[in-house]
Amino acid sequence: TPARETMETLSALEIAEQMTYLDHKIFVAIRSEELLSQAWMKAEKAMKAPHVVMITRRFNEVSRLVASEILRQSALPSRVAVLEKWAAVADICRCLHNFNGILQICSAFMNSSVYRLKKTWDKISKTTRQTVEKLQKLVSADCRFRNLRDALHHCDPPCIPYLGLYLTDLSFIEEGTPTFTDDNLLNFAKMRMIAHVIQEIQHYQQTPYRVEPVTKVINFLLDQSLLLPEDDLYHLSLQYEPRTNRMSVSAGSCIAPEESSG
User: Fold this and answer.
1) Tell me: the pLDDT tens digits for 80-114?
2) DSSP secondary structure string, 104-160?
3) Which of 30, 44, 142, 173 has a CB 3.0–4.6 Å from the CB of 51, allowing a cystine?
4) What processes does the entry annotate via GO biological process terms (predicted)?
């Protein structure tokens, strides 16, 4: 069997393109009924909203892969190199309009095990630092993801939006607007608002990417054995850069993306 690919043997471009290939495949499979009545939050979500569940699980896995690859490097220069490569992957995702991919990587950078590695972050190049700051500003949740919405509305498809943004909008509409009016008639204004969100998702589902699948890269991205448990990540982080009194981060302050729906 051929040697397994690693973070070192793959280029940032290969990783970004295949992440985009995998994300898009799940994204285009989401059906409109999965987005109704907050189906993705129900007990039977795996049956009612399978692709929403899948995209959420995938989001968490990629995020954990990024953190695992950084923390698998015991030598500081290797850790810096891997962090810089993931930042490059995220920036290529931006060029590919894969906003979901940018968020997967940025959320790994915000994971407390990675975020607290002061010595590692101090060693990254100025260019990488500027790239990371620019991307984190782009995907910031401030003002209901205002920067991300602007970027989405100004980009030409193909594109993979961050689904969490729409799920938040849909929950907001479902919970904040009654389904029936005072006269017990169906509230059409609410239906129109829901339809508007779903139509925007469908608009982005229509344009395919011209990216061919590359098995060796996909195998790397889907390799569950590369994912380290959250506790292990934190212990490694402390091992490489022990706590100082000035900067202590509690293990409980993990900034994870949406709850895992595995």
Assistant:
1) 999 999 999 999 999 999 999 999 999 999 999 99
2) HHHHHHTSHHHHT-HHHHHHS-HHHHHHHHHHHHHT--HHHHHHHHHHHHTSPSS-B
3) 30
4) Ras protein signal transduction
CA–CA separation, 45 and 29 (whole Å)? 15
Residue pointed to by tokens 């995020």: 63
CATH of domain 12-241: 1.10.840.10
Query: Are 237 and 68 in contact, with CB atoms under 8 Å apart?
Result: no
Note the pTM of the prediction, 2 decimals: 0.91
Here the tokens at position 14 are 């290969």
Residue 262 has pLDDT above 60, yes or no: no
CA 250 centroid distance within chain: 23
28 Cβ contact list (under 8 Å, min separation 6)? 205, 208
The sign of the torsion formed by the CA atoms of 251, 257, 259, 262 equals: negative
